[in-house]
Every structure is written in structure tokens, then in C-alpha cells.
Design a protein that fits this description.
This protein is mainly β. It is 7% helix and 46% strand. It contains one helix and 23 strands. The strands form six sheets. Strands 2-8-7-4-5 form a five-stranded mixed beta sheet, with no helix packed on it. A five-stranded mixed beta sheet has the order 17-23-22-19-20, with no helix packed on it. It has a four-stranded mixed beta sheet with strand order 10-15-14-12, with no helix packed on it. The termini are far apart.
Length: 332
């Protein structure tokens, strides 16, 4: 009987210990695990985080436009009750001022903490791009006529000659950097303008100033020469049917050369007058009478020889100008 009581007593002790153990540890289904201390979201405005936000990624950068003066940063903890400090200030949203364009980046520290000693630091580097320095034109054209010399972005000074009856010139200027600004009074920022000319025999200067984003300006200048009445003895075009003129045609350039192959026996030169009422002749014969805009002259050239072809343009008032094309035929 005594032995049976001992076994019962032992069983009661085991049962009591199991009950106490369960009470101390709780039920397995109700146990909780504290999550990591981290952000649940992080945004910037303006700009975008690089890389895209992920709670486990702590290093970011943001590229800002040159005009940005500040950035709004919003950071929310993943777990309610955790605290957030942006650059040392306890807050989940803060405006951060950024330095001048092209200067050193602005580094923002974001710390998320829980009530214990656990914390995690996120870093956002704000890069403000430098202001653009491109103050070039990528194209510049005029109508009617053409620019001398031919347009190049680094060439700032041009001239053009127009007939006495031309009263306006259309100017088209294209910025290399769309964010640059065209000014100067003659041509607006859109780059298109019709320029009224002064009376016959006068000169008009058109200024096109291009200012880069960084404030540095470049000015292009077009000097337009309007012919005096009845004295326009210029050509507006000069071409050959073989070879190429050297230099390229310009109304103010009167001497040219052209080389043709040995197989070319005859070369035709075509010329167009600026003033249709001028008279054009070659080899002593009229090739374009008053009222005729253009004319041709053909020269026969021997092997290895040079033949100069002179084209005389006589203005309505009798003022002459002679253009000469020296044609050289290569030997076999």
C-alpha cells in the first residue's frame, strides 16, 4: 500500500512540474518574434532614389536638377512605435536644403530606433547637377541668301548680301542646349524672326545672344548688306557641271579654280545674278540679258592645260564685277 502511494505522489509531482513549465513559457501558438528595426518606406521629392527603396538597403543617392533648392524627405518606420530621426531631428518628414549646383553633395542621415538600443542608419546622398555651360547655336540660317562664311558653332561673325529690292530677311537660330536662352532684341528665345531691313544701300546688324544655364553668354552677329539701287553686280550662285569650285562660292569671292579629270573635255559653268536686271556676259558675248536671272558658259579645255573663264556682271547703273573660274584639265 505504501509503494502505491509513493508512485501516485511521484506522478502528481511530474504533472505539477509540467503545468508550471507551460505557464512559464506560454502556448507555442501565441509566441511572438520582434521584427528587425528598419524603415517601411522612404521617399524624396523632387528626384528618385537610386537604387529603388528596400528596407534592407541603407545606401541611396538622388540626382537633382540645378534649380532644386531643397528636398522633402519622408521616412516611416516599419514597426509602429519605432522612432525616426532625419539629420538628428526626430521626425518622419523634413525639408533638407541643398547646396549650389556643381558643389559637394549633401549627405542626409536617417536613423530608425526602437525603445531598446537597437537602431539602423540609412544614408541618402543628394547630388545637384552642375548648370549647363553650352551657349552654342547648332544651326543658323537666313532667307533669302546665305551666310558668309558657312555656319559653324564656334564662328560668331557672318555677313550676307541681298538685292536692293529685298526688304526683310528671315533668321532661324537653333540652340545646341534647349535649356539655354536666346536674347538680344532681334531674335526671340524661340529662334525664329523676320528682320526688317533699312533702305537700299544700308547695312543692318542682327545680334543673337545665347546664354547658357550657368549664365555665360555668347553673341552671334549677322551683318546684312542691302544693295544700293541699281548697283548690284553680284552673283547669287555659281556652279560647274564637273569638279568642284575652290573655294566654295560666296558673292564676295571673285576668283575660283576647278580641277576636272582627263576625260572631261568641256566644262559648263552656270551663274545666277543677284539682280535680274544686271547684264551677264562671258567671252565677249551676253549670256544673260537684263530680266534674265541666269546663264551658262561652256569652255573647252586641253589635256594638262588651264583655261580661265571670266564672267562679267554689269549692274543696271553700269558698275562691273568680274568673276573668274580657272578650269584645269588633268593630263592622262
Amino acid at each position: 500500500m505504501k509503494h502505491a502511494l509513493t508512485i501516485a505522489h511521484q506522478s502528481l509531482v511530474v504533472l505539477l512540474l509540467m503545468t508550471i513549465g507551460l505557464g512559464a513559457s506560454g502556448c507555442g501558438d501565441s509566441a511572438t518574434i520582434n521584427p528587425e528595426v528598419e524603415l517601411g518606406s522612404l521617399t524624396v521629392n523632387p528626384g528618385a532614389l537610386r537604387p529603388a527603396f528596400a528596407s534592407t538597403t541603407t545606401q541611396y543617392s538622388v540626382d537633382l536638377p540645378p534649380s532644386a533648392a531643397s528636398v522633402a524627405i519622408t521616412a516611416q518606420p516599419r514597426v509602429a512605435g519605432d522612432t525616426v530621426a532625419i539629420d538628428g531631428q526626430p521626425t518622419t518628414s523634413r525639408s533638407i536644403s541643398v547646396g549650389p549646383a556643381g558643389g559637394p553633395p549633401t549627405v542626409v542621415s536617417i536613423v530608425v530606433s526602437e525603445s531598446t538600443t537597437k537602431s539602423r542608419t540609412y544614408t541618402v546622398v543628394l547630388n545637384k547637377t552642375a548648370l549647363g555651360s553650352d551657349n552654342d547655336l547648332s544651326a543658323l540660317a537666313v532667307t533669302p541668301g546665305s551666310l558668309t562664311p558657312t555656319f559653324a558653332p564656334n564662328q560668331q561673325n557672318y555677313t550676307m548680301d541681298v538685292a536692293t529690292d529685298v526688304t526683310t530677311v528671315d533668321v532661324s537660330a537653333t540652340k545646341s542646349d534647349p535649356n539655354a536662352v536666346i536674347s538680344g532684341g532681334d531674335v526671340p528665345n524661340e529662334g525664329q524672326a523676320t528682320i526688317p531691313l533699312d533702305g537700299p544701300g544700308t547695312t543692318k546688324t542682327v545680334l543673337i545672344t545665347v546664354t547658357a544655364q550657368n549664365g555665360i553668354a555668347k553673341t552671334y552677329r549677322i551683318t546684312i548688306n542691302r544693295a544700293a539701287p541699281m548697283d548690284n553686280n553680284n552673283l547669287s550662285a555659281l556652279t560647274v557641271n564637273a569638279g568642284n569650285l575652290s573655294p566654295s562660292f560666296s558673292p564676295r569671292t571673285i576668283n575660283y579654280s576647278v580641277d576636272v579629270s582627263a576625260t572631261v573635255e568641256r566644262v559648263t559653268i552656270s551663274a545666277t545674278k543677284s539682280d535680274p536686271n544686271a547684264v551677264m556676259s562671258a567671252f565677249g558675248s551676253v549670256i544673260a540679258a537684263a530680266g534674265v536671272q541666269a546663264g551658262d558658259v561652256t569652255a573647252t579645255v586641253g589635256l594638262g592645260t588651264t583655261v580661265p573663264v571670266s564672267i562679267l556682271v554689269r549692274a543696271p547703273n553700269g558698275s562691273p564685277k568680274t568673276y573668274t573660274v580657272s578650269v584645269f584639265r588633268l593630263p592622262r
